[in-house]
């Protein structure tokens, strides 16, 4: 059945449909970046609220700034901005249609429709999921990079910006001129201190053209920090077929695990929906939750990604079924990550680790190892290097994390250990591959040319064991190197 407002009542009984009148929804949020994660996470929470008869003036207007966003808009517009979310438990699946989005703005090079929508008084939140690597952060300093060509363009052309952050600054300029209170900017990307990172990008781009506006944004606009979590694989033929099997003709289905979590700072001067009614946690300790999640879940993904990728393992659950990779994950998390994660309110870290291992093992998700290996140049400095730094600073044993760094380098050499070519899997793939090739004979070349490590590159506590680990991986293979590590800490 083709998905649309007109066919909702005709869908199979097993598919849950919106339990509210979509005609009564009014927009309150513009969301930039309507990929799978947003549509399986924030939009689902709002759908739950609307089903309770709550907050129906907080519907979502979708938006985007990339070519892929235009394709998503076309797909969703053709089905009245409806789409299906299929939750996959190990032994069951549940499908529902999400109706929280009521429009999707045209995607234009100058972001004119986006700026106009964000300037409307009824828009009180602008939210974003533009990927971890989309915030123009200098990997060497961890700070916003105003010299990036996209940002420089927006500084020279503030009324026709290219980036989401330039568009947000342009809309805030219009609201200030019109005497309209600013919206809250709510980042939903997986970044440490994501509200602060977003503020740095918006204020930074504004400062290039209008320092007074930048100061006003810094003083008047709220950027709450948040922690978001739900494993949401990319949609491919398998997921499309799954939707069809459920009786859905959906051009943009999403599959995901049953688990979801959202932790937010309660800083919304322009108002917000009552998300606590549907399980969102509001706290002033978001930093503790995000550190736990980033180091254990996202760091855990990296720990299994590169051994799995080098071993030609396609799916995450298959990597978890490999006894050695599973043991490597459990051991590194237990010995080298958990001891340096600060306490989290209401949470036992060993229990959280066990939950993560269980989630990774779900065979129905069919998340790919390649997805976990993607964009290591942005992910390693956020997910692995902080644990490595804390461990070394405390005089701890970081051999597993150092071995993981060597496995990442070996992966970036561009072939698996059976000799299969690895397709480019990082925005900086060419330079990474070149340095990884040189590092086979000169390991320090990987560290010196890799901004992920900063001053650790010349720290002998890291550089020397890294060189030894990388040479061991090349000479004997990753399985032998991991086996030696596991036996040494048993």
From TrEMBL:
Residues 286-474 form the Mannitol dehydrogenase C-terminal domain. The keyword Ion transport does not apply. Residues 28-276 form the Mannitol dehydrogenase N-terminal domain. GO terms for molecular function: oxidoreductase activity. InterPro entries: 6-PGluconate_DH-like_C_sf, 6PGD_dom2, Mannitol_DH, Mannitol_DH/Oxidoreductase, Mannitol_DH_C, Mannitol_DH_CS, Mannitol_DH_N, NAD(P)-bd_dom_sf. The keyword Oxidoreductase applies. Keywords: NAD, Oxidoreductase. It comes from the Bacteria. Coiled coil: none annotated. Its EC number is 1.1.1.-. PANTHER family: MANNITOL DEHYDROGENASE 2-RELATED (PTHR43362:SF1), MANNITOL DEHYDROGENASE DSF1-RELATED (PTHR43362). This is Mannitol dehydrogenase family protein. It comes from Gemmobacter denitrificans.
